[in-house]
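Protocol step 4 of 6: structure prediction from sequence.
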Amino acid sequence: MEIGSDLPLLTYDFYQSTNVVMQAEALLGCCVFTEVDGAVTGGMIVETEAYEGVTDKASHAFGGRFTNRTEVMFRAGGIAYVYLCYGMHHMFNIVTAPEGMPHAILVRGIVPMFGIHTIKQRMSHSDNTIPLLSNGPGKVCKSLGIDKGFNAEPLCGKRIRITARTPLAEGYAITVARRVGINYAGTDALLPYRFILSVNGYRAVGL
């Protein structure tokens, strides 16, 4: 079975927008699927954070910082940027914008919808409530089997793909908030670049 085969994929043009904040919001309600060792897993994206390239003090590419790690951020949008945080947790980011503009969007939370048995195995049944299996960026990667091997992977391939959002049902709403865990960024830490999908007033990641 080809992952996400029954849903239209986000187009290449979607990833080329220079408005990373708008893109971060637009990703809510889209679904991300992975295929690892023949196991297909996926879920709805319900929390994102935007990082605005060279001008954003919270971005790895702030000031045009070009390293072995950030090089992938300078490529044309539509690929994954995966890095290891604190030597423990992988973080899955979506590279956006044209080549040379290192914008990225961190996927902070999903609601698992496909391959739940596999996801529970990967999470060692640490959470019995399905949404809580992936309610944080480290959990997103662990539940979907994403590691550094996915770095620079096209987001419309066999291993990982993101499908377009269908119209949100009644009761869904989007909350805008400041990013978390980036106090080092000074005033940029206060930017309203985090987006959370809620249902009837409750965070979708905590249902």
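Step 5 (inspection) to follow. The chain has four helices and nine strands.
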